[in-house]
Amino acid sequence: MELFYSQDIDAGVCRLDGEESGHCARVLRHRCGDEINVIDGLGTMYECRICDDNPRAVVAQVLKANHGWGSHPYRLSMAVCPTKNADRYEWFAEKATEVGVDCIVPVIGERSERKVFKTDRLRRILVSAAKQSLKAAVPEVAEPLSVRDSIKGCDAPVKLIAYCFEGERPRQGVTEALAASAETGGDIAILIGPEGDFSPGEAALALEHGFVPIHLGPSRLRTETAALTAATAVYLRLGV
Amino acid sequence: MELFYSQDIDAGVCRLDGEESGHCARVLRHRCGDEINVIDGLGTMYECRICDDNPRAVVAQVLKANHGWGSHPYRLSMAVCPTKNADRYEWFAEKATEVGVDCIVPVIGERSERKVFKTDRLRRILVSAAKQSLKAAVPEVAEPLSVRDSIKGCDAPVKLIAYCFEGERPRQGVTEALAASAETGGDIAILIGPEGDFSPGEAALALEHGFVPIHLGPSRLRTETAALTAATAVYLRLGV
């Protein structure tokens, strides 16, 4: 199934941008009268009929709006520190989009080797991933912020942090910790640290702010694998 | 933690091949008397002391053998059809190794676009992944075979196939289906189809041979994402 993406859908009229118009009218040769499906990235898939096949500015009339199309029964925010290698972060974000995630927050830890993060490229990747996995909602990519600010600003009822507290604290397995979230409407935030892990100060701050320490099992997972494993645990527990 | 890999460990003596020797003695400048950790790829990690630091042929004396080092409490065989893009298969295999898998079987379906599959490169990737995730066992990469032959040859007590039987058959969610496997010692085989899915004939053959139809939830996942999601479901259910 072929999907287009538009941020300009209003009053029953859908306009595709230059790139999507070229793909629609030049590459796929769609003409006036053809029906196309367009996602708004916010959760609605519009069935439309093309009324202007200009390859620089396709316009289509909305026939039907399908709200919550390809949605999942939870809200998941993944705050994940950038990996040294940007590709590995991008694949986490792409795969998490396929599985089901609502917000990706690049967070910079005190021990992060990578302190800068470009969000534009990631946003484009997630639009493609949402189309490919038939979801009308494209996960939000937040502007990068510090681990400490993300901890202070997190208001999800279920907040989990994957960190080894060197035995200071008992930790639950992620699936076990998620059992609690079912009663809270499945609004979940998960914090995943950098290769160098969180600083003890960051971890302590998370506990102060009600984050529940979790573990992802005995395997030693890279940052991006840990993040995808946690997102998959949420999907398997609340989405399947 | 730095690990080396050797297939030549015998009678208390461990020999590194040319590549590992160069990395050990030239790059990392290890000398006689240094202690190194070596995995055999079969499940044992050997603590050794170097007795010959020849950068082309390092020899070390075994001090201690740690059996089942970094192992998981199940046996998982993933029979997965090659993806059109080889990179995507390689990342599935790498990530599944981090999470925990024992055997990867490239299976060629009647609807597979890719009918050939090179295993050498994949084996090298899995050695690196096992080292990186601190596992002494490197997953076996089987020689490619047809979906039909893999179905007929599969003798695992729990056999699952991810396939949409168009409502002909009720399907269980993967985690639900795995509950049964806990009583069978966690010896599991999972079959994941190509982009074009299994042929009805292949699916029917799987049912005849006792495969249980499963689904991976409402998300539409690419082949490699479906495979990793299934492997992660096993890890979360039996390994965490």
Give the radius of gyration of chain A.
20 Å
Percent strand of chain A: 25-35%
* Shape verdict of chain A: elongated
Series of H and E elements of chain A:
EEEHEEEEHEHEEHEEHEHEH
Q: In oligomeric terms, what are we looking at?
A: homodimer
Which two chains form the greatest contact, residue counts included? A-B, 31 and 31 residues
CATH architecture assignment name of the largest domain in chain A: 3-Layer(aba) Sandwich
Kindly report the average pLDDT value of chain A.
94
CATH topology of the largest domain in chain A: Alpha/beta knot
Please give the count of helices of chain A: 7
Low-confidence stretches of chain A: none
Largest sheet of chain A: 8 strands, parallel
- Counting DSSP E segments of at least 2 residues, the number of strands of chain A comes to 14
The CATH superfamily of the largest domain in chain A appears as SPOUT methyltransferase, trefoil knot domain
Structural class from helices and strands of chain A? Answer: alpha/beta
Question: Level of helix content of chain A?
Answer: 25-40%
Number of domains of chain A: 2
Q: Which CATH class of the largest domain in chain A is shown?
A: Alpha Beta
Span from first to last CA of chain A? 22 Å
Descriptive account of the structure:
The structure is a homodimer of 240-residue chains. By secondary structure, chain A is of the alpha/beta class. Chain A folds into two domains: 4-67, Beta Barrel (Ribosomal Protein L25, Chain P), CATH 2.40.240.20; 75-239, SPOUT methyltransferase, trefoil knot domain (Alpha/beta knot). In chain A, 32% of the residues lie in helices and 27% in strands. Chain A contains seven helices and 14 strands. In chain A, the strands form two sheets. In chain A, strands 7, 8, 9, 10, 11, 12, 13 and 14 form an eight-stranded parallel sheet that branches. In chain A, strands 1-4-5-6-3-2 form a six-stranded mixed sheet. In chain A, a hairpin with a 2-residue loop joins strand 2 (8-10) and strand 3. In chain A, helix 2 (86-99) packs parallel to helix 3 (120-132). The first copy, chain A, is elongated and about 65 Å long. In chain A, 47% of the residues are buried. The model of chain A has no long low-confidence stretch (mean pLDDT 94). Chain A binds chain B through residues 70, 72, 91, 95, 98-100, 132-135, 173-175, 215-222, 225, 228-229, 232-233, 235-236, 239-240, and chain B through 70, 72, 91, 95, 98-100, 132-135, 173-175, 215-222, 225, 228-229, 232-233, 235-236, 239-240.
